[in-house]
Write a structure and sequence with these properties.
- There is one protein chain.
- The protein has 483 residues and is α/β, with parallel strands linked by helices.
- It has three domains: 8-156, no CATH class; 173-338, Rossmann fold (3-Layer(aba) Sandwich), CATH 3.40.50; 350-481, Rossmann fold (3-Layer(aba) Sandwich).
- Helix content is 46%, strand content 13%.
- It has 21 helices and 14 strands.
- The strands form three sheets. Strands 3-2-4-5-7-6-12 form a seven-stranded mixed beta sheet, sandwiched between helices.
- Strand 6, helix 16 (311-321) and strand 7 form a beta-alpha-beta unit.
Length: 483
């Protein structure tokens, strides 16, 4: 039987019959509609005109349909931004103009192959019509459609997309300081010139394994951080590669002058470990919770600044910093965090890692905040918002290319860190955007205050470093870019 192009009801019946033969065909159409609306909502008037001409030129729109197409755009452009992508009534109106007006449906089992070809042709026509609009949308092919022989067009369904956070083992947690300790031990085995100095916190900052393995290459300096940094600079003159370790509040908090002049100004190859950084230092209280160390290190010339997101990456970062030949500051936390990366994950100083991709907003995070960024990605997906998540593990040198690339792609940036928002990683990102590609940005971090004594994760939540805070910031920055 052949469905006549008479009324909407007739078309609905045809669709129903088709759905009985081949499930998911209507879902297929819905995916195309959602993808189409997401892209149409971003078009400017000039872009719309250009696209309409291209469709007319390719004979996908007749002159009569072109008039209806342009009129529909005028009505659609008057809608508030919040309704443009959510109201599928408009999607149906657009699709009715683009879609072929009739589809042949044959219910005979013997002629099923012919039916599939017709449906495939219909999908192919839609794909050609909207190619200019959906060329950046990811392909999501369902197993059932594959069995039925239907090729799904390249569409993006935010609601069905799985985030990186969903794939993580929530019970798998590790200490970044442990990763550092393992990396130091492994680097020390490879290079006998590596020595370690500590300020009476050997066990806390995980230098103890190195100290036990190589006692002649370990120096306990006592609570004397300034002297420790000066001694390390002197050791460089004798061919050694020293690692100085303590809490970040004291190293580089207390010995910043020696770091600046004796090490960085002189370009001595000293490695600095700032342990127990941020609010997750918890019960030790405000005096020990370094929330300013990124700000005071990233501005010093000749100094790399690295903030690994988990235990595995901390080990890689430690090994990497011993392979370069200049001062490097490594920042690690006290509390356990999710193991986001794997042994196979790439790590390169100065090269950001894109963990999950999306087109609505870019979330850039470092350290322990990366796990919150991935969780926020999943929460946003539930509201049909798709985010790119970037692990910016190196603050200096900063990956300008990655920042600008994804600022252009999404038009909105959120930064998240366990640090003061003034002067930290977020500020470093905004400096890049200001010079290269001005983009709306929201900041998640500690807002001009000291911490207090308490459970590390409870403090993070209280001071606004959480997945929920990132979700809120993402919605806010998206509304700004749509104004």
């Amino acid at each position: 039987m052949v469905a006549k192009k008479t009324s909407t009801k007739a078309k609905a019946k045809t669709t129903t019959k088709t759905a009985k033969s081949i499930p998911n065909t209507s879902n297929q159409e819905n995916l195309i509609q959602k993808a189409l609306m997401e892209k149409i909502a971003r078009l400017t008037h000039d872009e719309w005109e250009k696209w309409s001409k291209e469709l007319a030129k390719s004979e996908n729109l007749s002159k009569e349909k072109l008039k209806s197409w342009k009129k529909l755009w005028v009505d659609y452009s008057k809608l508030p931004s919040s309704q443009k992508t959510k109201d599928l009534i408009w999607a149906n109106k657009f699709m009715e103009i683009i879609m072929p007006s009739e589809v042949t449906v044959k219910t005979s089992k013997q002629k099923m192959k012919s039916t599939k070809k017709v449906i495939k042709k219909k999908v192919s026509q839609v794909k050609k019509s909207v190619k200019k609009v959906v060329d950046e949308i990811t392909t999501d092919v369902s197993k059932e459609l594959k069995k039925e022989g239907i090729i799904q067009p390249e569409t993006k369904s935010v609601l069905t997309k799985i985030s990186q956070f969903s794939k993580l083992d929530k019970d798998s947690r590790g200490l970044t300081r442990n990763g550092f300790g393992e990396g130091l031990l492994q680097a020390g085995k490879k290079n006998k010139n590596i020595v370690a100095l500590c300020a009476d916190l050997t066990g806390s900052v995980k230098v103890d394994k190195f100290a036990n393995k190589y006692p002649k290459r370990f120096f306990e300096m006592g609570i004397c951080e300034q002297n420790m940094m000066g001694a390390a600079a002197g050791m460089c003159l004798n061919g050694k590669i020293p690692l100085v370790a303590s809490y970040a509040a004291f190293n580089p908090g207390r010995n910043w002058d020696q770091l600046r002049v004796s090490v960085c100004y002189s370009k001595h190859n000293v490695k600095i470990l700032g342990g127990h950084a941020g609010l997750t230092t918890g019960p030790d209280g405000a005096t020990h919770q370094a929330l300013e160390d990124i700000a005071i290190t990233r501005v010093i010339p000749n100094l790399d600044v690295i903030i690994p997101c988990d235990e595995i990456e901390a080990k890689k970062a430690t090994l990497a910093m011993f392979q370069n030949n200049h001062p490097t500051y490594l920042r690690v936390s006290r509390e356990k965090s999710l193991n986001i990366t794997s042994e196979k994950s790439k790590f390169e100083i100065g090269k950001a890692n894109v963990l999950d991709s999306g087109s609505d907003v870019t979330i850039i995070a470092c350290g322990i905040a990366v796990q919150f960024a991935l969780e926020a990605k999943e929460l946003l997906l539930q509201e049909n918002i798709d985010a790119t998540v970037i692990n910016l593990h190196t603050i200096s040198p900063i990956d300008q290319k990655a920042i600008v690339k994804y600022a252009k792609l999404t038009g909105a940036i959120v930064t998240a860190e366990e640090h003061q928002i003034d002067g930290g990683m977020g500020s470093a990102v905004s400096e890049v955007l200001c010079r290269k590609y001005p983009t709306p940005q929201e900041f998640v971090g500690v807002k001009n205050t000291f911490g207090e004594s308490g459970d590390g994760y409870q403090l993070l939540k209280k001071y606004g470093v959480s997945a929920q805070a990132i979700v809120k910031a993402s919605k806010k920055v998206i509304s700004r870019k749509n104004q």
